[in-house]
Write a sequence for this structure.
């Protein structure tokens, strides 16, 4: 019953999410413009490549890698932990709890509603990559594309679930914004956002492989730029989805435990 | 003049007292700031593990630029950002009235309204980075280099502040600019590398339009003793001009202010 109801509400919720994104399009544009880090990193690594390639990375590879990073960050980013902190502190979360849809689904659908706009923003960047680098680095064959899709979906889910879990920590702490900041800092270092994982020294690479961060950005980017053969790609996407499952379990655990402590303010 | 110095002291004390109410915040924020500064060094460590120079800069030299970046970021986020972010709020809600009524210059009052000294922990991080850089270079900076660098520190701070005043002035026209502050920090992120990393249009943009090169690369060059006296004078003159222009723009924008309540 509850599942059927949720399914019936989905299209409307998606439309609401989309309308919301359109209403705040100027704000979205500023957020997009402020994603400068991949471009700043691209400038640095291009300067490195001018003196000769590093590993398999030449000028073209770096351009493809960091512009793909920009795109993946655009379509998989999540901000709900900030929103949840706000809603839990203000007590407005109670409005969500009254609805017959699980807040996890509601938050998820709201975030999905923004995706079309973010894809639109990413298209010119994708066009630039193709114009500058050509299509030689793109994945070959429908199978590889499907795997890319799975990796992108996995990285969206992983980022969303982690954000949801850390947002739920606000039930226990007064504010979990700082926890999110620690996560972000680690994410910057270990996800391949600043440095392609391949270029890490071996010891650091092993660490990055075992942490969840590289499955948020690095993996889809690597697959989109054909960095891996089939067996390796499959193993990595498999590991990514294990992290997704783990994050889902942990996030729900934190949410369920925290909800019991929730006392809506001013209710 | 004396009055403004005293006023500055009062404003600083008020922020410090507010801050002391949140001591735990002070510690955790401080630690986080240092942590972020360290993540900024990771790409350099990886690159110089493989190469001895990038865009004409050795490891020690590039570290100097990053040190300046860390230092200026500490100044930006500790002393410039907090005050001016609250101006945007004042403009939107109309409470700027109360500032304008006070018998002192409005730009001075809003610029000194709030400080966040925990951001200043990164001044220490910057000092460590400088130490490391000169250890790497194997020599100390010349007294003339240090003097020039200190002058440039003043002019860089002035530049940052002026750029900020320009962005805030935009708030009088478009009101919703709290995002702009974020955008501004994102653009400033580009100052972490030596300016010769950038090519073409970006190199031009970052020297003349948004003078990031003047802020971090020039002081680093000064410390290395590679900055010509002519460039030093040009940088100082440029930043003073920038400050004057921003003052004029601020005054014009202030004329546009129509309180929110009326």
């Amino acid at each position: 019953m509850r599942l059927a109801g949720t399914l019936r509400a989905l299209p409307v919720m998606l439309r609401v999410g989309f309308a919301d994104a359109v209403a705040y399009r100027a704000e979205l544009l500023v957020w997009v413009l402020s994603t400068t880090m991949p471009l700043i990193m691209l400038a640095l690594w291009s300067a490195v490549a001018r003196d000769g390639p590093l590993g398999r990375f030449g000028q073209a590879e770096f351009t493809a890698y960091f512009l793909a990073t920009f795109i993946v960050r655009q379509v998989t980013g999540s901000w709900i932990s900030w929103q949840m902190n706000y809603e839990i502190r203000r007590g407005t979360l109670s409005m969500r709890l009254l609805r017959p849809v699980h807040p996890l689904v509601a938050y998820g659908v709201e975030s999905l509603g923004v995706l079309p706009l973010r894809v639109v923003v990413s298209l010119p960047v994708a066009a630039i990559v193709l114009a500058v680098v050509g299509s030689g680095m793109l994945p070959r064959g429908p199978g590889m594309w499907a795997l890319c899709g799975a990796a992108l979906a996995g990285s969206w889910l992983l980022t969303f679930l982690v954000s949801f879990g850390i947002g739920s920590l606000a039930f226990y702490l007064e504010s979990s914004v700082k926890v999110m900041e620690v996560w972000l800092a680690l994410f910057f270092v270990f996800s391949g956002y600043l440095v392609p994982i391949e270029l890490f020294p071996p010891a650091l690479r092993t660490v990055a492989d075992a942490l969840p961060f590289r499955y948020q950005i690095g993996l889809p980017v690597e697959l989109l730029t054909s960095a891996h053969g089939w067996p390796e790609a499959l193993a990595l996407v498999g590991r990514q989805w294990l992290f997704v499952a783990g994050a889902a379990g942990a996030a729900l655990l934190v949410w369920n435990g925290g909800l019991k402590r929730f006392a809506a303010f001013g209710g | 003049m004396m009055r403004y110095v005293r006023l500055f002291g009062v404003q600083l004390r008020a922020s410090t007292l507010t801050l002391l109410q949140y001591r735990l915040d002070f510690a955790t924020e401080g630690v986080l700031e240092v942590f972020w500064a360290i993540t900024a060094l990771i790409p350099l460590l990886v690159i110089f593990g493989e190469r001895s120079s990038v865009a004409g800069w050795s490891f020690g030299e590039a570290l100097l630029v990053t040190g300046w970046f860390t230092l200026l970021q500490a100044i930006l986020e500790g002393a410039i950002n907090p005050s001016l972010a609250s101006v945007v709020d004042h403009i939107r809600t109309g409470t700027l009235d109360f500032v304008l009524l006070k018998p002192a210059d409005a730009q001075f009052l809003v610029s000194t309204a709030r400080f966040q000294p925990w951001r200043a922990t990164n001044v220490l991080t910057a000092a460590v980075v400088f130490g490391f850089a000169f250890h790497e270079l194997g020599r100390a900076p010349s007294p003339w280099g240090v003097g020039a660098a200190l002058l440039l520190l003043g002019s860089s701070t002035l530049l940052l502040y002026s750029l900020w005043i320009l962005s805030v002035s935009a708030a009088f026209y478009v009101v919703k600019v709290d995002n702009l502050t974020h955008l501004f920090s994102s653009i400033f992120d580009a100052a972490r590398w030596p300016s010769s990393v950038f090519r073409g249009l970006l190199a031009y943009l970052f020297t003349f339009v948004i003078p990031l090169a003047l802020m971090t690369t020039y002081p680093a060059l000064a410390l290395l003793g590679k900055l010509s006296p002519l460039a030093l004078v040009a940088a100082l003159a440029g930043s003073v001009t920038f400050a004057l222009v921003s003052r004029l723009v601020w005054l014009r924008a202030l004329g546009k202010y129509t309180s929110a309540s009326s």
Remarks:
- Chain B has a mean pLDDT of 81.
- Chain B touches chain A at residues 28-29, 32, 35-36, 39, 42-43, 46-47, 49-51, 53-55, 176, 179-180, 182-183, 185-187, 189-190, 192-193, 196-199, 202 (CB under 8 Å).
